[in-house]
Amino acid sequence: MTSETEDAIAAAKAVMAAHIEALNARDAEALAATLHFPHHRLASGRLQTWPTPETYHRDFLARAGEGWSHSQWDRLDVIAAGPDKVHLDVAFTRYRADGSALGSFRSLWIITREDGRWAAAFRSSFAA
Asked: Radius of gyration (Cα) for the chain, nearest Å?
């Protein structure tokens, strides 16, 4: 593995750490900074696209489920990586405030470097 690929993997994992931190803090601006726009998500048999950050956070809160408090990455496994793109096999759990799980899900996240900035460009999720 080249140092360029290792740097890409480190950048992708940093994006994922920033994403979950911003999500749990309910920080819409910081969350949007972890995504490229338009942002694409394939779930429940449909492709959803958010052209801009403005509605992304509100839409997540609607999807997260009644009682959602926070989420946690359970696994971030690299499937493939190159200098400008990393594919991650991800597992995560959504929790209520009392620590009980709302659900655990798998996703494929594609993190890319565009105009020098690393962020998530696309994901395919089994979560609602």
From this structure: 14
Tokens of 87: 């594919």
- pLDDT tens digit string along 56-97? 877 776 776 678 999 999 999 999 999 999 999 999 999 999
pTM: 0.92
d(CA 72, CA 103): 11
CA dist., res. 20 & res. 93, Å (int): 11
Q: At residue 12, what is the residue type?
A: A
Cα–Cα distances in angstroms (integers) from residue 107 to residues 54, 64, 82, 90, in the given order: 23, 15, 20, 5
The tokens describing 15, both together, are 């994006």
What sign does the dihedral 31-35-37-41 (CA atoms) show? negative
pLDDT of amino acid 65: 67
Q: Within 13 Å, how many C-alpha atoms sit on residue 92's CB side?
A: 24
Q: Is 116 helix (H, G, I), strand (E, B) or coil?
A: coil
DSSP state of 45: T
The mean pLDDT of the chain is 92
Tokens matching residue 97:
């405030």
